[in-house]
Amino acid sequence: MNAFQFARIPRIHFGTGSFSNLANIIEPYGSQVVIICSRSVSAFPVFSGFLDQLNRKQQVAEVCILTGEPSPQFVDQVVDRVSGRDPSCVVAIGGGSVVDAGKAVSAMIPLGGRVKEYLEGVGSREPDGRKIPFIAVPTTAGTGSEATRNAVISEPGPSGFKKSLRHVNYVPDIAVIDPALTLTCPLDVTMSVGMDAFTQLLEAYTSTGASPLTDALAWNGLEMSVRSLPVVFTDPDNLEARSELSYAALLSGITLANAGLGVVHGFASVIGGLFPAPHGVVCGALVAPVTRENIRKLMATGEHPNALWKYSRVGGLFTPEPSSMEKQLEMLSERIEAWANDFRIPKLGKFGITRANADHIVSQAGQKTNPVKLDPDELAGILLETME
Ligand SMILES: [Fe+2]
């Protein structure tokens, strides 16, 4: 067995109705609570109830609304607004973008300076890991940010970027996961972020950085996501399926933070910085062609037979009857492609990505801990497949 490390995970409160206990969970965290949420969350009746509970205890320092993805300016502005009041903790209630914003604010309050100075590949300073307590409350089942050590910050545009503020200490202190909160998430967003969770689990499971511990968790998440994604699509109010998807998303965060990701996410961080394509859509569009190419290359080179076996095992989740390894490998790519079509994941051309951009995207994209190294022409071929 290879040596491995595993970072701590948040204290987890999981279950329908767990949001109603949030004010009690926050109580020990001081009197200056900074809340970050999306506009849609601020309109939830349960959010007003939560805010009333906190106001009665005079715990609220500031409520900040994030629209879109977190920019360096948003993070810096929130930090400037609250710093003079000695904030005691940050609570983020929303999708992956909101959780990332909250994670970055909780880190930047004691760190000082501007967040851009600390972003990987953008700034030149290393974060030292100090932060104030951070509580993540996801309202979508997708990014797994409630369990990861990085916050993705983006500056869109032609010279844009999507880069991480990262430190092992940035894993949230507490994650409150109430699957009922995901019921109001629109179906297109639900399916694309669900595809992100599935992609993260598949990439972590087949990663060269995987360990027996991440394998066990990723496998459990893969079982749950393969079972629940089609049910949520046809029956979005099915709370049991929503719960399984929320649980799978949580496991995707834990496993990606401890095993790493692959080519889909290598592409996604570049594409997300350059084009207004939501992260889940990028992953949903890329996961089938990347999986097919990884399998083809693993078979052709004979490298990492264990990764091939893992892909085949995941393919077996799509059928009740065990089949040959070759058939299960074929089934995996086919079924993921069918998911992308059934769930109406848009092609990437819709966001302005053209053949002319392919070489630049390929040159910027890292392969992370992909199970096999792909050549630039193989990467370009994958990208072209996703355009129309
Ligand atoms: Fe992702």
Key features of this structure:
single chain; 388 residues; alpha/beta; Rossmann fold; Dehydroquinate synthase-like, alpha domain; 2 domains; six-stranded parallel beta sheet; two-stranded antiparallel sheet; 8 strands; binds fe (ii) ion
Overview in brief:
Helix content is 50%, strand content 11%.
Question: Would you write up a description of this structure?
Answer:
This protein is α/β, with parallel strands linked by helices. The chain folds into 2 domains: 11-182, Rossmann fold (3-Layer(aba) Sandwich), CATH 3.40.50.1970; 186-385, Dehydroquinate synthase-like - alpha domain (Dehydroquinate synthase-like, alpha domain, Up-down Bundle), CATH 1.20.1090. Helix content is 50%, strand content 11%. Strands 1-8-5-4-2-3 form a 6-stranded parallel beta sheet, with helices on both faces. A two-stranded antiparallel sheet has the order 6-7. Strand 6 (150-155) and strand 7 (161-166) form a beta hairpin. The chain starts with 10 loop residues before the first strand and ends with a helix. The model has no long low-confidence stretch (mean pLDDT 96). Residues 143, 196, 200, 265, 279, 283 line the site of fe (ii) ion.
CATH architecture of the largest domain: Up-down Bundle
Largest sheet, if any? Answer: 6 strands, parallel
Distance between the amino and carboxyl termini: 44 Å
What small-molecule ligands were found?
fe (ii) ion
* Structural class designation: alpha/beta
Number of strands: 8
User: Strand order of the main beta sheet, please?
Assistant: 1-8-5-4-2-3
Mean pLDDT metric:
96
Helix content: 40-55%
Order of helices and strands: EHEHHEHEHEEEEHHHHHHHHH
Count of folded domains: 2
- CATH-derived topology of the largest domain: Dehydroquinate synthase-like, alpha domain
